[in-house]
Amino acid sequence: MPVAIITGASKGLGRALASALAQRGWDLVLDARTPEALHTTAEALSAYGGGVQALPGDVTDAGHRVALVSAAWDLGGVDLVVSNASALGAEPLVRLEALPLEGLRRALEVNVVAALGLVQEALPLLRESAAGAVIAVSSDAAAEAYETWGGYGASKAALDQLAAVLGAEEPGVRVWAVDPGDMGTDLYAAAVPDDGDPRPEPASVVPAFLRLLDERPASGRYSAPSLLEVR
After folding, report:
1. pLDDT tens, position by position, 194-225
2. Separation of alpha carbons 126 and 170, rounded Å
3. How many whole angstroms separate alpha carbon 121 and alpha carbon 224?
């Protein structure tokens, strides 16, 4: 069975994607910072019959990243790495003039440095896979100028560039940066707590990610809404 490492997998998009892969028979290594929520997710997904390893921890910890890849190795290797764990830099979001620099550093460490560190750790196994792939979960804030989203958007723009270069450097591995579009997640609620407009559930965009895995287009940046359009 193929093996995926998914960060930020206890809820939201990470859990929704993990659930879809589990239903397809994938084995999973799941990461999140909250042990209770992560173990609840792992227990639920184990019902589909595949191997599920839950490793609570912080992706900025190099030892934790090593543990994630080691757990995947025990399951058979690494076929997919999904960098979904994200930090906003400030909760709620603020204008750049008020953005704490320590918050910006945290966003860069989680969204960029840790994402690359995990790929570096997993890369030898991804190269060995017949269908090795990396998904970097991006944001429209990486490409558009939205007030208060500057720090988070800058970190996601940097992640996009890393994904683009990695795709050029590793032609045997598919590397996709994916903008999932608007979703109703805890991350968004923390970013803009006063926004009462309903937003789509994360599960609604999962078919876009599955399409990438099924069709394996060239490495590059994709938007979930475009992938979901009728062909």
Report:
1. 887 888 899 999 999 999 999 999 999 999 99
2. 10
3. 27
Out of 48, 146, 152, 188, which one is annotated catalytic?
152
What is the share, in percent, of the chain residues with pLDDT greater than 70? 99
222 is catalytic: no
Which residue is it, tokens 């290594």? 29
Q: Evaluate whether 80 touches 213 at the Cβ level (below 8 Å).
A: yes
Which residues lie below 8 Å from residue 26, measured CB to CB, with a gap of 6+?
Answer: 1, 2, 3, 4, 50, 80
CATH of domain 3-227: 3.40.50.720
Taking the C-alpha atoms of residue 78 and residue 100, their distance in angstroms, rounded to an integer, is 36
Domain boundaries, the chain: 3-227
Q: What is the pLDDT of residues 122-140, one digit of tens each?
A: 999 999 999 999 999 999 9
